[in-house]
Fold this protein.
Amino acid sequence: MPKVLRHTLLSVRDLLVAGGPFLVIALVLLTLAYFALDPNPPRKVVLATGAEQGAYAEFGKRYAVALKQPGIQVELRTTQGAA
């Protein structure tokens, strides 16, 4: 076996021995953080729609219908608008 190849293989082995445990620990911690923080989108959204007869109220109703399919509940709240 040529010297260059032998030294390269030893270097890779040494790198794996030295850095392998840190890589495993990092992957385990990232996996635990993912499940602990639960980064999924919310299942309930509150949407202010302005006056009841306005265009924003109609947009809110359309959003409620569109978001119902993936299982997101939309609560529409009417407001007085800019007043």
User: Anything to note?
Assistant: Strands lie at 44-50, 73-78. Residues 60 and 68 are 12 Å apart (CA to CA). The first helix runs from residue 3 to 37.
